[in-house]
Specification:
The protein is of the alpha+beta class. It has two domains: 118 residues, Gcn5-related N-acetyltransferase (GNAT) (Aminopeptidase, 3-Layer(aba) Sandwich); 155 residues, Aminopeptidase (3-Layer(aba) Sandwich). It contains eleven helices and 13 strands. The radius of gyration is 20 Å and the shape is globular.
C-alpha cells in the first residue's frame, strides 16, 4: 500500500535513510533528534491545514510517500514541485523488501501525481556509481541523463575566521531587486535542455522563509556588486538537523572579478563556520565551470558524482 507519511513513520524512516544512503549520510551527518522536531512541527493541526490548502489549490510544498507492507515501512520517496516537473528525492526501499517492485510502484505513483498536476517531467538524482539504480531508471523505466553534477565539500569552515560583520568592498547582502539580473545570468549559463526540464526559478529565494520555519534553519545570501549591479551570488543555509551546512550552486557572471568572487565565498564559508557547521556541501553541475573553479580555489573538492535523470510524464 502506498500512502502519505504519518508521524508514526518517523523512526523507521530515519533508520532507513541513514543506513541506505551511507555515502551521502557521511557528508550530511543527519541528527535524528532535530528531524523528529521537524516531524512534530509539520504534524501539528495548523500545519496540516496549511499544507492541505496548498495542495487543494494546486501549490503543494512537498509530498512524502510511504510504501507500507505488512504494517511496516518498506520504502519511501519525497516529491517536490519545481516548475514543469515533479522532483523525486530519497527513493529507497528496505533491503528486506527489495526485488518486489516497490521502487517501481513508488515511481509509478509519482507519475500519476505528476499527470494530475499537469507536470511534464519526472526528475531524480542518482549516484554515478550506483549501477543497479541507474539500470532500473534508465533501462527499465525510460529515464534519460540530463546533467552531471558533483557534491563538492569543504571541511572545517571555521578556519577562514570569524563571521564578517563588515563586508569586504564589492560584496554586500542580497537585495530582492537583484533577483532578475541574477536569474538572467543563471539562465544564460544553463543548457537549453536543462532549462526546459528544470528551469532556473523566477525567484531565487522563493520559499526560503517557509523552509526555514519548517526546518529551524537559517539562510543568508550575498552578492558581488562593483556599483553596476550584481555579478555573482552565494546562498548559505544552516540547520541544526545536520552537521553540514549547504551552499547553493554559485552564480558567477562572465564579468565577475575572481578576487571578489573569492571574498564572496569566504564570507559564506565564515558564516557557516560561525554556526559550527563541521563542513559545507554544495551540488554543482559540471557545466557551471566558473562556479566550480571559484569553489576549488576556496578549498572545496569533489566528493560524490551524480547524474540527474528525467523522463516525460506522458
Amino acid at each position: 500500500m502506498i500512502r502519505d507519511f504519518q508521524t508514526r513513520d518517523a523512526s523507521a524512516m530515519v533508520g532507513l535513510l541513514t543506513t541506505q544512503f551511507p555515502e551521502e549520510e557521511a557528508l550530511l551527518g543527519t541528527r535524528p533528534e532535530a528531524f523528529f522536531r521537524v516531524v512534530r512541527r509539520v504534524s501539528r493541526w495548523d500545519a496540516r491545514i496549511a499544507f492541505g490548502f496548498l495542495r487543494l489549490i494546486g501549490r503543494p510544498v512537498f509530498r512524502l510517500l510511504i510504501f507500507e507492507e505488512d504494517g511496516h515501512l518498506a520504502g519511501t520517496t519525497l516529491l517536490t514541485f519545481p516548475a514543469h516537473s515533479v522532483y523525486l528525492s530519497m527513493v529507497v526501499v528496505d533491503p528486506t523488501a527489495r526485488r518486489r517492485g516497490h521502487a517501481r510502484s513508488l515511481l509509478e505513483r509519482a507519475a500519476e501525481i505528476a499527470q494530475r498536476m499537469h507536470r511534464r517531467y519526472l526528475v531524480l538524482d542518482v549516484l554515478a556509481n550506483n549501477t543497479p539504480a541507474r539500470t532500473l531508471y534508465e533501462q527499465r523505466l525510460g529515464y534519460r541523463p540530463l546533467r552531471e553534477a558533483a557534491f563538492m565539500v569543504r571541511e572545517h569552515p571555521e578556519e577562514v575566521g570569524a563571521e564578517r560583520t563588515a563586508l569586504p568592498s564589492g560584496v554586500r547582502r542580497f537585495d530582492p531587486q537583484d533577483n532578475d539580473t541574477l536569474v538572467a545570468i543563471a539562465r544564460r549559463q544553463t543548457p537549453s535542455e536543462v532549462q526546459e526540464v528544470l528551469p532556473v526559478p523566477a525567484h531565487l529565494l522563493g520559499g526560503t522563509r517557509q523552509t526555514d520555519r519548517i526546518f529551524e534553519s537559517e539562510t543568508s545570501a550575498w552578492v558581488v556588486d562593483r556599483g553596476s549591479g550584481p555579478e555573482a551570488m552565494a546562498v548559505a543555509t544552516w540547520a541544526p538537523g545536520r552537521e553540514a551546512a549547504h551552499l547553493n550552486d554559485p552564480i558567477v557572471a562572465e564579468s565577475a572579478d575572481p578576487a571578489l568572487v573569492a571574498e564572496l565565498l569566504r564570507t559564506a564559508v565564515a558564516w557557516c563556520g560561525a554556526r559550527r557547521a563541521l563542513r559545507i556541501m554544495t551540488s554543482v553541475p559540471r557545466y557551471n565551470t566558473r562556479g566550480r573553479a571559484a569553489l576549488e580555489r576556496e578549498g572545496f573538492h569533489d566528493a560524490l558524482s551524480t547524474w540527474t535523470l528525467y523522463r516525460p510524464v506522458a
